[in-house]
Every structure is written in C-alpha cells, then in structure tokens.
Amino acid sequence: SGLLLGLCPVLDFLQCMHVLPWPCLSYTPVQSKSQFLLLPVAKLSSEFGPPVSVARMLRSLTARSVRIKPTAATSTISKHQEGYFETGLATYPITPGHEWCGTIVDVGPDCPANWAKGQFVVGETTMGCGDCCGFCPEQYNRCPQRTETGIARRDGGFAQYMAFPVSALHRIADTVPVDVAVLAEPLSVCVHAVESAQSPKGTHAVVFGDGPIGLLLAQVLKSYGATKVVMVGATPQRLELARTVGADAVLDVRGQSLLDVQAYLRQSFGGCLPSLVYEASGNTEFVTPRSAPQLVARWC
User: Fold this and answer.
1) What is the pTM (predicted TM-score) of this model?
2) What would the pLDDT profile of 232-245 be if each residue is shown by its tens digit?
3) Quick one: DSSP state of residue 294?
C-alpha cells in the first residue's frame, strides 16, 4: 500500500481557468506538480452548491446500472488524452477521476441479483459500444464510440456520485484498503503486460519509466519471480521510491545515451543484457522498434 496513490498536477490550473466544472470537483489541492496523494472524495464536500454531476448521473442511470458513492479516485491528463478533445472524442464539461473505487448506494431494477447496496467495487476505465463497431466486445478499448471514465463521455470518480453499468463493475473484498483498491485498474495493466510476454520467473528485466505504471510493473515482475529488475527513469524521488518497492537497481537516464544505458544494464546483470524490456514512459528516446533489439539479450 506504500505506492503512488493518485495524481492531479493540473487540477488547480484547470479549475482556475474554469475548464473543469466547479461543483463537480471534490479533491485535495496539490502543493506541487510532482506531488502524489490519495483523494478521499467521500470525505470532502463541495462549497459551491448542489453538484450538477448528480443531475447528469441521475439522467444516465439505466435499468442495468448502479449508483455509486466514490471513496477514492486518481486522475491525470496526458498529451494523449488532450488529443481526445482536439478530435472530439471528449468534450467539456467532464468530471475527472479515471481510476476509482466506491460503494454501491442504489441498484437499477434490472440488475442481476448478485449486485446489492453496500458492495465495494471498482470499474473498468473504458467501455465500448457493444458489438457494432468491429472491435467490441474483445477489443473494446479500440472502439471509436467508447467512453473513458473521467476523460471521454463518462464522468469519473471525482463526482459525488456516479452511474455505472454493472457489466463493467468488479467486486472488491471489503477487507482491501481503499488506497490499494483504487490502484486495481493500473495494476491490472501491469499484470496483463507481464502475462502477455514470456514468464519473468528466473529472468532479468528492465523497466523504462518511473511513473505509477512503471513502479507497479517492477513489483509485479518481482512477484512473478524475476530474479533482478532495473528501473530506468528521470525523476530522482521516483527512482528512490522504486528501490523501496522492489527494484534491485535504478538508473537516472538524464544526460545518458543509449550506449550508456546498455553499459549500465550489462554491469547490473553480470555482463548480460536483460531478457525482458518493458516500456512504461511514453518517451521514444531509448525504446523504439530500432533500439529495442539493442537492449535485450539474444544470448549470454
């Protein structure tokens, strides 16, 4: 549970610019752009009158949806997500909160009997149209009509209440702490990445990117049996955190060349390059289709 618990480095700016709807927000202001924090939405209240997000939520509540009181949420805005607004996939107003956990407070009349008030849940961050786009249901994350919670066409966990289809909900045991449950979705991203590649058991791996996904990925690799994991990043405090959550070695990549990175990896892995390379930074300076073969061991 000693992980990064949420990211909202631009909410203060967006709120001041009136880009985000004031009454929809319940969050703790950050002190700096690099600060990560838990956002206990349920314990905060809006000071700006009745939240308009509740009205939008009630209009969207369908017979097979539930009403949820969020208890924690995380959010960030990336360059990729900014493009959603440029293309029209996303429009304002939108209540942020991409990953979240919460408690069901009301159940639609046609919901299956296994859904009930008081259940602790998390939800999918992406939902497709169903079956008419050619990607759904298997590749719903590619659906051109998809919704993305807290980003595109669906209000997120910073709202006081949410309407959510039960088809995209997952039960969480009541014994799971809130600050762990809210990381279920990003953790699933890392588990999927590890299980999609060769087994890391007994191997060496390097993770490029010291953000939340990279830090979770390092822990997943160790839990799946990786012998040694090196974290490569550019943020000293995150690299220090990487050591505390399981990374065996870290490299501050600022000012380093590809050859420098290769040399460090060989030094870290006893003269060999790693068997597995994971890119979790979004930075194409080091890991590209051309450079990747120079970072992974073919034989040793």
Assistant:
1) 0.73
2) 999 999 999 999 99
3) G
